[in-house]
Structures are given as structure tokens and as C-alpha cells.
Amino acid sequence: MKSVNPATGEIIATHEELDAAGIEARLSRAAAGFARWRLSGLDERTALLARLADGFAAHRDELAAMATAEMGKTLKSALAEVDKCAALFRHLAQAGPDMLAPSSIPLAAGGRAETRWLPLGPVLAVMPWNFPYWQVARFLAPTILAGNVGLLKHASNVQGAAALIERMVKEAGAPAGVFQNLPIRSGPVGAIIADDRVAAVTLTGSEAAGQAVAEQAGRALKKVVLELGGSDPFIVMPSADLDDAVSKAVTARIQNTGQSCICGKRMIVHEAIHDDFRDRFVAAMAAVKAGDPLDPASDIGPLSSEEQRRTVQAQLWKMKAAGATLTGGEALAGPGAYMTAGVLEDVPVDGDLMAEEIFGPIAMLFRVTDIDDAIRVANAIPFGLGSSVWTRDVAEQERFVRDIAAGMTAINQVMASAPEAPFGGIKRSGHGRELGAAGLHAFMNQKTVLRAD
């Protein structure tokens, strides 16, 4: 497997894939590691999380540089990602034990029922390249605290980041088998899921990958959490602070060079303010600077690969052929998978193209007549991950929360994940939750204990 710098097109490293014997050795180590780690106390688990937080903070420059080199995100966003991982480890080290406290329920027939949170076993994580540390931390931190152990199948183009995560866990003093990187492609994943030593699987990735993993997990009767694609609505109503909405719409769309599942991708704007929003938004997107991800002046870096840029270009060609107009969104000449930020207008509202997730710095802009129309357009796709609504009208806010078909809604702010809050979607954006208490409990056995006294 090759790590290719998308800013230059140069191969920066190669990584040897595990063979069958190597996979077997890691599965055996995971099983043995779980047999020990499941018996560890919360003090030992939280201490490991605290050391991991310290390690990520101490090595933030090294970790960020690897992410920038392997998948092209700007250095400032890579540093922010590493800091967010450290915050998650620290949050669970401090707040996690309360989430695992047993409960006692008196029974009408007499006696009481207790509930205990117990670990399940080794958890396989199939993770994407777009946030090479944060996506892993979202599975790794609760895995450690729960008393489970983790196996990571990371994207093939960020194996350098995967190896660094494994090193960080070892340097934090984790016992053998608590976390292992599996440098493999997708071929062996089905057999690993089916292996009796693996208790559950979590995946963040494409809809197709989610379907494959869900099918394999279902056949093996394993618990699964899926965080899949999204084409999040970003709705702006007349009462919104327009300056703030325009600025945050740009931020939402270009974060991580547009390669985020919860980027605002469809800007749905009330007709009373549409033209004003449109003029400001198009101008602001045109001012976004695409350039060297190591340059602090760059707003966006290259896309993750030349292949990814070709995918986005093909989507734009299809949309223009269907009658859409595009401002910006041009592939830049020279080395690197760079393209400018752009805005698509006149995309058919009820066609299949509106439902396509564009994983690049391209926004779709829609005009709507009222709140009912805004909700209709927001829900007219098979995805339901996040959403963002901009209105100072409290009644409108409550209507959007109730009626937008999504796992999350942000009000007057950009949609984002946080260590404290559950994260996940509905419809074809997946099922299950990460983060918060729900994410910690996702791969645990909520055992009921009946007592007569």
C-alpha cells in the first residue's frame, strides 16, 4: 500500500500488507488481550486514556504533519484534529466512569433489578482517510474505557497515520493486544468480521462500504455501528443574521477541503433573502484560496488524491449536463490534486443528482418559498446525517428540529461533532451512535441482575 502526497503526487512511503498468518497472529493477540483487559479496573483504563491524551498533545506536530502529507488537509486543520483527539481521550478519562455507573430499579413484584455495563470483546473498526486520527479516536477511546480491545482496518492511503496511532497507544503503556493496526485492504474484512473472536464492528465510510459490512455483520450476528455518507442541508431563513450565515456557510462547505460527511453541502435559502445570500456566498467561495496545505494562508489544500478529484469533476460534468450552472470548481493545473471552491445552481430539486454526496469544496444552492418548502427540499434525499438551520425564530427552530429527517440538527452554528454528544445519522446515513454515553454503550453488554433482597 502506498502513501501518496496529494499536494505533489509523490510517493512518500510504502506499507507491507498483512498476510493470512499476520492477521491470525493479531486476532489471537486481541483475544488474549481482551481476556486480560476485561478484568482491568476503571482506574487503569482512565489512566491509559489520560496518558493517550498527553501523548497526542506531546506529538501533535508529528501527527499533524503525517496527516497533511498523506491526505492533504491543511496543517492548521490537522493540528486541530489532533487536539480534538486529545480532548476526547481526556473527556472520557474524566467523565466516562459516571457513564458506566450501575443502576438499581425496585420491582413491583418485589426485589430489585440492577444493570451493569460489561465489555463485549474485540471490536473491528473500518475507518476512512478524511479524518485519519479523529475517526479512530471516536472508536478507540470508548473501546479502552469499556474494557474492549480494538482492531483497526484503516484506509490504505493513510497507513502512516495508522502506524502512528498504534505507536501512541504502545507508548502510553497499553497492555499487549489492547489496540492493533491491521494494514490490510478490504478483501479480508469479511472473514475477520465472521471470526468468533471478533465481537462487533464499526465503520465510517461510503454507503456501499456500509452495505457490505452490515451484510457481513448481519450474517455473523455481530453488533454494528455505521456512519455513512451525508449531503447535509444548510437552511437559511429571513430572520437569520445574514453576515454570519454566509460566513459560516463557507466554513461549513470548505472544512477539510469539503471532504467531510457533515459538511453543509446543500445551501437551502428562503426566496426573500436568496439573491443577497447568493451574491455574498458566491463571492466568498471565489475568494477561498486553494494552495500548499503547509502554508497558513491556504484555506484549502488538495483533495485527498487525483482519483478523488476526478470523481468530483465527473459529478460536476453530470450536473452541468442536467442543466446546472457552476461558478468556480476548476481543477488547477500543475502537480497536486487541487481544485477551487465552487457553487452549483439550478440543480434539479427532485432528481437523483441532488442526492449525490460531493466530497470536495463544491456547494449546491437552492431557492425555497417557505419553511415547508425548505423542509421538503432538505428531506428529499436518502441521507439523514446532520443539518444546520439559521433562524432566530424560536418556532421555526422547533419545527426544523421536529421535521428535518436527520440524526443531528445544529441551530445557528455549523454542524460539528463533540466528545460529549452522541453523533450519528438515520436513513442511508447509517445507524447507531458514536461519542457521548451512547457511543460508549454501543459495544457493551447492558447486563440485568435480579436480586431478591
From TrEMBL:
Enzyme Commission number(s) of this protein: 1.2.1.16, 1.2.1.20, 1.2.1.79
Keyword set, alphabetical order: NADP, Oxidoreductase
Family: Belongs to the aldehyde dehydrogenase family.
Provenance organism: Sphingobium fontiphilum
Entry's Gene Ontology molecular function annotations: aldehyde dehydrogenase [NAD(P)+] activity; glutarate-semialdehyde dehydrogenase (NADP+) activity; succinate-semialdehyde dehydrogenase (NAD+) activity; succinate-semialdehyde dehydrogenase (NADP+) activity
Entries under CDD domains matching the protein: ALDH_SSADH1_GabD1
Name under which the protein is recorded: Succinate-semialdehyde dehydrogenase/glutarate-semialdehyde dehydrogenase
Domain of life: Bacteria
Domain Aldehyde dehydrogenase: 2-449
Transmembrane regions: none
Enzyme class: oxidoreductase
InterPro entries in alphabetical order: Ald_DH/histidinol_DH (IPR016161), Ald_DH_C (IPR016163), Ald_DH_N (IPR016162), Aldehyde_DH_dom (IPR015590), ALDH_GabD1-like (IPR044148), GABD/Sad-like (IPR047110)
